Amino acid sequence: MSTDTVQVLQSDGFNKSRWTQLPRDVLIGHQAILQLPDIIADIRPGRSVLIISGGTTREVAGNAVEDILKDSYDVKRFVAGKLDTTTLEACSQASMSTDFLIGVGGGRVIDCAKIVSYKQGKPFISVPTAASHDGIISGRATLPTEAGSVSVGAHPPIAVVADTGIISQAPHRLMASGCADVISNYTAILDWELAHRLRGEQISEYAIALSKMTAEILVKDANLIKPGQEEAAWIVVKALVSSGVSMAIAGSSRPASGGEHKFGHALERLIPGAALHGEACGIGSIMTMYLHGGDWREIRSSLARIGAPTTPKELNIPDEIVIEALLKARDIRPERYTILDMGLTRESAEHLVQMLYEA
Predict the structure, then answer these.
(1) Binding residues for NAD(+), per the UniProt record (predicted)?
(2) Do the annotations mark residue 264 as ligand-binding?
């Protein structure tokens, strides 16, 4: 037998490929929730649905979604308390007989719908009631564990329906946190480029450009982000969607998650619940931008104008805890190289925290 026609090794030609998953429909705007039947009719996911909500978000929008769909679809409901394995198992059981899922709520509810739908291979629709982070559209979910929160792979929603009237009525702290999450893209990008230069990590220029543009728009419009304003919800949700798309293009959370996110996760482990995810990332971004030699004062002033915290004192977190979080950030996802993995000393960490209080 001749071996002339047998290819054992790959050719030296171009062989890159990447599967980018994005939502099929994204609807943002005033009373968008009323157009949910049109979205479902367009994507045709089936006739039976499980609506997942939280205790509060059920009253805010979950009941309204059920009223809109109940005459045309077989509707079941599930209330997700805390996000843990027990809740995920119960939600999986509840969704066994349904064709698709709708998550109506904040990060915990959306992540629950995202994980369950991914495990069961069923589509889900994201209906956020707050603009607190970019998980409303991304393909990754945050799962609390005994060792702290971990980011797990799932899939993005098949559709997003973001009603700016509902979102604008959520506590402003949530929207400010979402803004801080997006503004921290600045330092996430710098960390990614640093890893590229020092470790040869592959980057995506398209993902970087989109992520950076999203942060720049929020900084430019910081004065428009006011409590209770539907226009503010419009601006922030669009930014969160763009940030999520940048991650989909990259195939990872790299364009929106660097050292500031590692700091945020370390802080959550040390003092759970003291800061919202975006709040911690915003403060982390001020400090890591300083280490990168960038304009950290612009990030701080933008966060302040939006109403996001810029110091540990504003969150009633002792400075010493923040110093420990900076030093422990290197233990979070050690494979993700950032400016905080370059040998930060305790003395330097103490200086970073004191810098936050400078006039």
Answers:
(1) 107-111, 129-132, 138
(2) no
Q: Do residues 111 and 152 touch, judged by C-beta distance below 8 A?
A: no
Q: Is 295 annotated as a binding residue?
A: no
- Render 37-92 in DSSP notation, one character per residue: HHHHHHH---SEEEEEE-HHHIIIIIHHHHHHHTTTSEEEEEE--S-SHHHHHHHH
Cα–Cα distance measured from residue 323 to residue 52, given in angstroms and rounded to the nearest whole number: 38
Rg (alpha carbons) of the chain, rounded to whole number: 21
pLDDT tens per residue across span 298-310: 999 999 999 999 9
Q: What are phi and psi of 143, to 5 degrees?
A: -120, 115
Phi, psi of 171 (to 5 degrees): -50, 135
| Distance of alpha carbon 192 from the chain centroid | 17
pTM beyond 0.90: no
Find out whether 196 is annotated in a ligand binding site: no
The per-residue pLDDT for 334 is: 92
- 109 is an annotated ligand-binding site residue: yes
Whether 168 has a binding-site annotation, put simply, is no
Question: Annotated binding residue at 20?
Answer: no
User: Is residue 4 a known part of a binding site?
Assistant: no
138 is in an annotated binding site: yes
75 marked as part of a ligand binding site: no
